[in-house]
Amino acid sequence: MALPSLAVNKYELTVPSTNEEIEFRPFLVKEEKMLLIAQQTGDEKDIIKAVENIINECTFKKIDAKKLPIFDLEYIFIQLRAKSIGEVSTVTVTCPDDGETKVEVDINLEDVVCEKSDEHTNKIELTDTVGVIMNYPRVNNVSGMNMEDPNAGFEIIKNCIGQIYDADEVYDKNDITKKELEEFVNSMSHQQFMKLQSFFEDMPKVRYRTKIKNPKTGVESDLVIEGLQNFF
């Protein structure tokens, strides 16, 4: 005798990078177990793999999570988490005014937004005729990198260059050797390299903004929470 099947609700969300409307379902017990096991290991790669698998399954495989920009992946997972476990997530943060007092903050996940600047562009003009088209970083572009290493920023920028163009031609990254790409980046002036760094500083970011009051000092501060693990 076949057991009854359980109905699953469907919802819609807008993918920040494309404004595409997609359907999704809450994650189920089997997927929640996958996430809990990954969290228990504490291994970043295990957690990322679990998040990617959950996104793929809960969007009915209409999305390949490995190809998502980081901010898309974060935003989609937060929407899944809100409909699956609950709209409120409690996190512990450090008060900015003294840098040491810890307080708990309740985050309404429905108020988490992907902030985008109207002036932001992925087309970076280096000279009057030469420029690059940047790709947004994916998780695999930054996973495992020591961000305190001076070379990390250089490697991320190289990884995210999608095309290089001049007045006559567009050069796709797939047609450029690693040596050619490294020489191109090394030939930039400080000002030109800073333009590429600004692309990452200005790109869309998933954030929650609130105010907190330090119980010890009584000082109220603005607080910005970002980063996927802060929304678990």
Concise synopsis of the structure shown:
Helix content is 34%, strand content 24%. It has 232 residues and is of the alpha+beta class.
Number of domains: 2
Helix and strand composition category: alpha+beta
Number of strands: 11
Q: State the low-pLDDT regions, or none.
A: none
Mean pLDDT: 90
CA(first)-CA(last) distance: 39 Å
Over all CA atoms, what is the radius of gyration?
21 Å
Strand order of the largest sheet: 6-7-8-9
Helix content: 25-40%
> Counting H and I runs of at least 4 residues, what is the number of helices?
7
Order of helices and strands: EEHHHEEEEEHHEEHHEE
Give the overall form: globular
What summary fits the major beta sheet? 4 strands, antiparallel
- Give the DSSP E fraction (strand runs of 2 or more residues): 15-25%
Pick out its properties:
232 residues, alpha+beta, three-stranded antiparallel beta sheet
Q: What report would you give on this structure?
A:
The chain is α+β, with helices and mostly antiparallel strands and 232 residues long. It has helices at residues 29-41, 44-58, 70-84, 139-142, 150-160, 178-186, 190-202, and strands at residues 11-14, 21-24, 88-94, 102-108, 113-115, 123-125, 131-134, 161-165, 170-172, 205-213, 220-226. It has two domains: 11-115 and 205-231, no CATH class; 123-202, no CATH class. The protein has a four-stranded antiparallel sheet with strand order 6-7-8-9. A hairpin with a 4-residue loop joins strand 8 and strand 9 (170-172). The mean pLDDT is 90.
